[in-house]
Inverse folding.
């Protein structure tokens, strides 16, 4: 169980939104993690360098906030096999669907993109379904309560 | 050069936001998705607050001819609601629910050398490769359309 953290979650959201605002207003780029990651698989071009800076910034930012405030909580329930399965799905799915929580959920929705609205509803929906099947049915050998 | 500094700064603020928001904890993300269990609505506030600021950015950008430090705004090239979008988002959602990780928080967790996050990220990079080097060339050959990202 994790407890509801309204203030820190809102503050975190404001920061994430600010990051997206910065990148859009100043650089004209979408702060979508999966898109930025995926572009690293293409031939290097004039955009490759800022992408690497952005990705490095994410790790640095997480480290910086741990140093300044506190180390963020971390608890993983999924087994290693499930983590690998999930990673494959997330990697492949975000590329096929052109975005993840940041690109569709934060940037796309703010832009009023219909595609992003549909994508966000769909991934929230299948996410809810997946966790329901895992936690509240016996289908995956865990059953209710685990 | 300036673009890279802004990108670094944006990433930095993004990473701090992920950390402060609590979304780097997979259990917390899963508890948001678990509407039938001990529901933790925190993620909704993260997204709501992020959207608020990000929308302000869109509003601001509409008054500009071009971004302050670039020639133009880079918009996604795909704009149809198609099967790829639905199928891709479905698969992503399942993975997100199973692990509690989406790409940003998983990457950010690498800063703390957390092995579960590393497992996930490695598999994710393979998944991206399967699309980028496997399926995408086939799809492009078929449609002749260049693929865009969001």
């Amino acid at each position: 169980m994790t407890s509801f953290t309204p203030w820190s979650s809102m503050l975190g959201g404001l920061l994430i939104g600010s990051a997206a605002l910065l990148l859009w207003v100043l650089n004209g780029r979408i702060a979508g993690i999966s898109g930025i990651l995926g572009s690293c698989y293409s031939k290097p071009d004039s955009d490759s360098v800022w992408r690497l800076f952005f990705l490095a910034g994410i790790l640095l930012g997480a480290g910086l906030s741990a140093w300044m405030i506190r180390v963020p909580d971390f608890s993983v329930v999924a087994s290693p096999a499930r983590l690998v399965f999930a990673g494959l799905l997330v990697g492949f799915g975000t590329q096929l669907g052109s975005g993840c929580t940041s690109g569709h959920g934060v940037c796309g929705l703010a832009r009023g993109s219909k595609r992003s609205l549909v994508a966000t509803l769909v991934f929230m929906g299948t996410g809810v379904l997946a966790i329901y099947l895992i936690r509240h049915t016996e289908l995956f050998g865990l059953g209710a309560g685990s | 050069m300036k673009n890279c500094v802004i990108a670094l700064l944006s990433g930095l603020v993004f990473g701090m936001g992920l950390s402060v928001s609590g979304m780097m904890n997979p259990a917390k993300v899963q508890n948001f998705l678990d509407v039938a269990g001990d529901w933790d609505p925190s993620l909704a506030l993260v997204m709501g607050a992020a959207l608020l600021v990000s929308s302000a950015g869109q509003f601001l950008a509409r008054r500009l001819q071009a971004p302050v430090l670039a020639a133009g705004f880079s918009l996604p090239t795909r704009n149809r609601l198609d099967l790829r979008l639905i199928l891709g988002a479905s698969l992503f959602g399942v993975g997100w629910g199973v692990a509690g990780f989406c790409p940003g928080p998983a990457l950010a967790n690498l800063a703390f050398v957390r092995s579960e996050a590393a497992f996930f990220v490695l598999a994710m990079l393979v998944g991206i490769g399967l699309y980028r080097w496997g399926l995408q060339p086939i799809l492009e050959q078929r449609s002749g359309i260049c693929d865009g990202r969001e």
Observations:
- The two ends of chain A are 11 Å apart (CA to CA).
